[in-house]
């Protein structure tokens, strides 16, 4: 009797172990690279895409936009993040866009808008909920993510990349230390003037293109919620940019949250990143899943 009981429980343990192995070994996301999402002038625009491996969807979508002062960087910088987002139930993409100085503003935002329109145009096949698309970006990518949140078709700058029948507006944005008001020239660190010729083709902070490239120019009460993270010791994009952005958002009645990371510079260490990533997922779940 004892041996039979032991054999019975051994069988149960083996069954549980087999089931655990089966579920733990199943892929939690799928990854595709270098998908053409539109045209930037004569250049093909490409993105990487991560999708939840299980479930029929439709899933909310996240558009991740790399930084690099609008003149460097690559979509691969967000590869690990988009895989993590997919494992949490999002279709996540990381995009490339045309870079300065070869391409001046507004090429960069035109490409980002095209990416959002591409996702909506292919929502069914990509298992995306077209009414639940958000943007995340760091530095220059944060700037572009903010423009996606605030600009409307009437503001122009949609570009000719494709899918003109779709909206490029996003439903939430996470901004990591992105410039928000490029007209505030005197507060930028020496050598880091955002109004440089390589991006805006002017060094004059009063030039119309500078205001046109500033996210705060477009804020109104209909804009989606914004979550910003900014280091108080950022030597490249002054923390005043984040404070200015959220003052304007508050006055407009837009849902906003500003997280100042005390002592942090232009980026996060491992400990800061873990805390920030947790807040980002909570914010996205609240805004896009519930």
Strand order of the largest sheet: 1-2-4-3-5-6-7-8
- What is the strand tally? 8
Number of separate structural domains: 1
- Secondary structure category: alpha/beta
**Which bin fits the share of residues in helices?**
25-40%
The CATH architecture assignment turns out to be 3-Layer(aba) Sandwich
**Quick one: CATH superfamily?**
Alpha/Beta hydrolase fold, catalytic domain
Mean pLDDT: 90
Major sheet characteristics: 8 strands, mixed
User: Segments where pLDDT lies below 50 for 5+ residues?
Assistant: 18-25
Total of helices: 9
CATH level 1 name = Alpha Beta
Q: Give the oligomer, counting copies of the same chain as homo and different chains as hetero.
A: single chain
End-to-end C-alpha gap: 54 Å
Q: What string, H for helix and E for strand, traces the elements in order?
A: HEEEHEHHEHEHHEHEH
Rg estimate, integer Å: 22 Å
- Proportion of beta-strand residues: 15-25%
Report the principal-axis shape: globular
CATH topology: Rossmann fold
What descriptors fit this protein?
290 residues; Rossmann fold; 9 helices; 36% helix
Overall description:
The chain is α/β, with parallel strands linked by helices and 290 residues long. Strand 7, helix 8 and strand 8 (256-261) form a beta-alpha-beta unit. The radius of gyration is 22 Å and the shape is globular. The chain has an eight-stranded mixed β-sheet with strand order 1-2-4-3-5-6-7-8, with helices on both faces. It is built from nine helices and eight strands. It has a single domain, classed as 3-Layer(aba) Sandwich (Rossmann fold), CATH 3.40.50. Helices cover 36% and strands 21% of the residues.
